[in-house]
Amino acid sequence: MKKLESHSAPFLYGKSSTSKIMLCVILALMPSVLTGCLNYGLKAVILLGVTTGVAMLSEAFIRIVTRRPQTVFDFSAAVTGLMLGMMLPPEFPVKWAAAGSMFAIIIVKQLFGGIGRNFANPALTARMLLMLVFMQEMFTWTTPGGTTVTGTVEMLPDEHAPLWDLFLGNTAGGIGETCALGLLLGGLFLCIAQIISPAAPVAYLGSFAALTFIGGYDVPSQLLSGSLLLCAVFAACDYSTTPVTKGGKVLFGLCCGGLTYLIRHYGGYAESAPLSVLIMNLFTPMLDHICSPRPFGMVRIPKKRKAKQEHAA
Amino acid sequence: MKRLSGIKLPFRKKTETKPIEPLPLPRRVRLPMLMHCGVPCVPAVQAGDFVTVGQCIGTAESPEAAPIHASVSGEVTAVSEITLTDGHTVPCVEIRAEREQVLCPDCRPPELASREALIEAARLSGCVGLSGAGIPTHRKLAACEQFDLLIVNGAECDPALTADSRLMSESPQDVVEGAAMILRLLNIREARIGIMQDKLTALKAMADACEGHDNIRLYPLPAIYPQGAEKVLVFHTCGRIIEENQTAADQKVLVLNAATCAFLYQYSQTGIPLIERVVTVSGNAVRHPANIAVPIGTPVMDVLEYAGCDLEGMKVLVSGGMMMGECLNDLDYPIMRQQNGLIAMRKLKIPERSACIRCGACMRACPMNLMPLKLEEAYIRQDLDMLRKYRVTLCMNCGCCNYVCPAHRPLAETNRMAKAILPENRKGDAE
Asked: What ipTM score was computed for the predicted complex, to two decimals?
């Protein structure tokens, strides 16, 4: 008699998959990537291509070396590489960008178990490392017009760029960081496609805007400058490194906003948004723990009675 | 009102418009002594005995059992053993059917005058919940002194099954009369019948049948899986929350399947016990998907042949629905009392599994608001305290998390196994 296969229910599977999600994220990054490429030309294309390519190669390499299932085709490494490239100044040396990509994938992501297991955002960590090592290069920005600007981009807008230029990305900054419109469009797309929840970005930008307003700074230009939007829309919604619970997401966003405000206006470091997201990454398990949803029909046992029950048992 | 989560499924009801047709008399039937949730029955016949249709062949010695009746008349060829899909090995009565079918003279319409009479009649009829776990109906009826609401479960939310909706379209009167009878005898004020919004023919037929019954109301349910799960159904039809370690009876709600209601009515009229049920036969290996009225105990082979199943090309055979069914790998396996579907598939494409990406889709899909990703983590670590803390016991195995997972993690299977490793659950099994 013919043998029938045995499987476990359910016998239906949805159409969603990890690679589809990652490709959607890449698509969402495209508006601001394309603006960056238009603004800065070939060198931006090369830089982005190198960070993305090296990230994918590193992922493939480390999975082969450690003899684990190949995960390069889930495109999560491409997202990391692309995000790293987007945060770099257009004139950044290509070889060091490649090193940053390798660091992000091999050290920060894969050594902690790969996709879903790393506790810190690889692209942001690599960016912070590059900033610490290459102070000079990381703080030399070019405007789309070709003028070189040195210093921290976050503080520049009040003096230099008009609001409209900030919104469209016609200002100095990382390749993919400057075009606020593109980033917001990407975020909107991801929210509509139900890939990310708007909870964290809204809480992040909301709390930051409120504090900026209270502090007496110009809210719109503060919101649109630096890497705040890229971090709020993409890094604060990263699956592995941010809370998965709804309450956790809101708390995460609120704390990020507060930290960004503090670092930007009182801290010694320039990169306030990436730094605050990285700090909050450490609190992700804790936020998920305190915000875990209440199961339907769950009965909470008061602590005293629980202790008594355990004692009796 | 707040609605519980769920998922939209591609409804593949090829059998929606197929009328219920009777199966020709099978050559033989095998009747396991455990076709309900509880304690096995004891065979009341021996090899060589001659039995008639509706004769009791398995007596329920425990009050937690529902007796089993012969579904065909003929000679008992053997009292053997059978291993059920859940792992229990129980006695099994095999009957070779004769051409002349004789009804047992004991089959008389019961006299129904009181609550106790109804409970006793339900027990004698061998009635069990006709889809799902198969809890003996008399236990449900007796679970509460005074119910205040009857909910008739006509949701049939599984995407492949249509047996109940066909029954409600073709004999809505039986369902409504059955509900009215239970209302009268148990002195319940109101009945609500939950049917999925998208089952238009069933809704229409039931609406017509409900006319004249002021205390029986139809409740269209959202077309989201799972609506037929007891806790979801009760919450959506009357807003009551069945807490953990509670049953519907603790909330004074009686939940009965539509087919069970219809059967109780038919039994009150004819006195023929539960010997036949409607099974949806579907799947891409079946040439003529159909709803078939099958004598209980018929080997699945006979049913598949009747429906024109490609037995050579069939790779997977599922008993039950697409979301919660279980695989059969024996074509001789009998049709059970609680079995509502039989799905034969040429192949089952299982997407490749990858690592959890913590997207949280499983949490958003879970009707019970659980965290399947945490439960999986706890199960992999065999962390019993964490499994308890995240309430794995509240999982009803609907499979929503499994369906939506982009990494295609086997979350439903994990939860089933996680429940099994909890010592408090294992103790219940041994009893």
From this structure: 0.89
